[in-house]
Write a structure and sequence with these properties.
The protein has a single domain, classed as Bit1. Helix content is about 30%, strand content about 15%. It is built from 8 helices and 9 strands. A hairpin with a 4-residue loop joins strand 3 and strand 4. The longest helix has 18 residues. It starts with about 25 loop residues before the first strand and ends with a helix. About 45% of the residues are buried.
């Protein structure tokens, strides 16, 4: 994955081989609660996953000398992988017992954990399913506009599972967070990391990807081709910064 317009060699969101790939790789685990009787709405799950990533990044334990800071640095130093798994019942209760943060949406619950080695999953998470997470929206989501708050625009031409889309929304939120100045980060944190995830209008997608806003390019590990643009992160502060001068 890459953040335009930074050169790929300077970005942890990259698709080509890099010497850092020879070192131990880290991944950010996210677990979505998926009870049979009350599955979350798809859009709410995507938005909750994106907010969960931001909550972890903004947590004092992930910064400075915090207990999660070294793991976060190791993760950000390589490819910023995120893996979404699902849990219900006793599985969810065991997942909640591990160190992490549970973020709740309107219908969704997502727990995010400090990064772990790609080959070092805790047994409570390793046994959870990673594929087949399919969710629907009972009603079409309301329109969203970046003037009213951050919007993560999904590529209208890609068909992604809910789990894949949750990870991509998390990437988009992270790129927006990295691109923001500290005052804007503080304001976003104070607003509870409010955001919307919407599928872009096909006619608007080319403009969005060329706008100078952060763009997620997938590394192609699962589901979609390497280098595919999956998300454009449109925060009001970034929208203003990306607007060409007149």
């Amino acid at each position: 994955m890459s953040h335009d317009p930074a050169p790929a060699s300077d970005s942890p969101f990259r698709t080509e081989p890099d010497p850092r790939d020879e070192a131990r790789q880290f991944v950010l685990p996210l677990v979505v609660r998926l009870e049979r009787s009350a599955p979350p709405a798809r859009t709410d799950a995507l938005e909750t996953a994106a907010r969960a990533v931001l909550v972890l990044l903004g947590d004092e334990r992930a910064q400075g000398d915090g207990e999660w800071a070294e793991a976060v640095r190791n993760w950000e130093d390589a490819r910023i992988r995120k893996v979404v798994r699902r849990a219900r019942g006793a599985e969810w209760r065991r997942a909640e017992a591990l160190p992490g943060i549970t973020v709740t949406g309107k219908s969704a619950e997502v727990r995010v954990y400090p990064p772990i080695p790609l080959d070092g999953w805790p047994k409570e998470l390793a046994k959870l399913q990673v594929s087949g997470t399919e969710l629907d929206d009972p009603e079409p989501p309301l329109p969203a506009h970046p003037a009213d708050g951050p919007v993560l625009w999904l590529n209208p031409d890609l068909d992604m599972s809910a789990g894949k889309a949750m990870a991509q929304a998390g990437h988009g939120a992270q790129l927006a967070w990295w691109a923001l100045p500290e005052p804007a980060r503080t304001a976003w944190r104070d607003a509870g990391y409010a955001l919307a995830v919407r599928t872009a209008d096909p006619s608007d997608w080319p403009r969005l990807t060329a706008s100078g806003l952060p763009v997620v390019r997938d590394a192609g590990f699962t589901e979609i081709a390497p280098g595919s643009c999956t998300v454009v992160a449109d925060h009001p502060a970034l929208h203003r910064a990306a607007r060409p001068a007149h």
